[in-house]
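Feature request disguised as a bug report, sorry. It would help if multi-protein outputs had a clear separator. Right now it looks like this:
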Amino acid sequence: MYKIDYSKLRSGDIVMTGGGGIFAALIRFFTAKGIRKSKAVTHVGILVDFNGQLLLAEMKKEGLSISSLEEYNSEYKYIVNIGRCFNMNDDKIIALDRIIAYDRRKTLDYDWKGILSFVTGTTGSKNKYYCSEYIAHLLRCVEIRFWPEERNISPEDISNAFKINLLGHMVHWREQ
């Protein structure tokens, strides 16, 4: 296990976490291909540059949220991995930053129906996303495609993507 060097992080890096709550346990059970893995990834977000500040963009139940990594780490008890797509270049990073800024202005909604798709086998809402669907959508927008579709992509699928280079890992436990 090694610590994340925050000075090496950049926009477009993917933040992968595995929570310990009941919602995380349900996500883990239904999306980790039926395997009950205690360290399966249950949530993902992406780093974005807003006016020179590196922030985390993620889909939460309230919709698209932007926060600092410090806020994120203080709010949750999570195991955190940060990865980078091997083929993420400067042009793609600039495009990602613009797409996320646009999405933030139009206020994206969370895809509750999409979460249920892992149980029902149906497709979620067209213009709504849950966390890993949003990451898959963003990557697809900059022509990084790991999957034939951007729907029904689990956080574990993002974690297992063959072109993700793990940059760092840390265990962060919030004080009780």
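(second protein starts here, but nothing in the output says so)
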Amino acid sequence: MASNTQSARQWKLHSQQVESDKHDLEEGNLPRYLYRYTSLEWLEKNIINNNIYFADPPKLNDPFDCNLNIDATVTPEIIFSWLQRLQQQGVMNSHFQSILLNPKNQSTIKKVVQSDPNKLESLAKESVKNELDKLGICCFIKPPENETDEKNNLLMWAHYADKHKGVRLKFNTCDIIEVITPLQKVKYQNDYPEFDFYKGDEQFIILASTKSTSWRYENEYRSIQREYGSLSFPPKALIEITFGCRVPYNDAIMLKKQLLASGFTNTEYAITHPYKKEFKLEYHKLI
């Protein structure tokens, strides 16, 4: 558990990030609305309870997500120094970290690395991944300028909304920014990002917001938190819930009643149907 000094520092940093994200939102550098395609199970487990869940990286659907390159010039001393610096900042505190920072263990680790250079890269990656896997990530997408295009985003419905058996959630970014700060635009590239052991914990943000160019179509934004788990959010932030075309109408009605009882009284509700002549969806208000 973090000390009072560490907690105060983290709260100060969070407050600064909230103000920064609010400024970016006002300047048009962050999207006014954010969408999330998800399953009914996620809706019932989280949204109905006024929560958003931030998943740990191993649970993400892309096995290449949050991967990294290690600088070839890294040494055990650099790794130990980096862990020590983050520990002093209160960024992390783990059993794995305490093992590496134990002076009795460090001499043994150095000998192993010297006898087998390949062990060094494994040690470096494990040091980072051990802490990276504690992060919490919640994924959103930025809608295109033409909202009609987003309504017919058949790939997102199929890939993330349980093959049209789930929902599309529309959030007002302004009303949820304090919960999802820091909000990071995903960078798409061909190579894994390189981890710099001379920099601080901002490196985790880079690792957690870099994906393969294959995913560029998603136009994704990510909220990256210190720890995975659930955070509560104000119901007014969720302005629209749309059920997929494979959700039975009666099930949608039942879930709408539960959501209304949970405080989502100002949220608009809709359900989709396949269009008869084209590859697109019709949206109908859920009465």
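Even a blank line would do. Unrelated, but nice: The CA atoms of residues 83 and 170 lie 39 Å apart.
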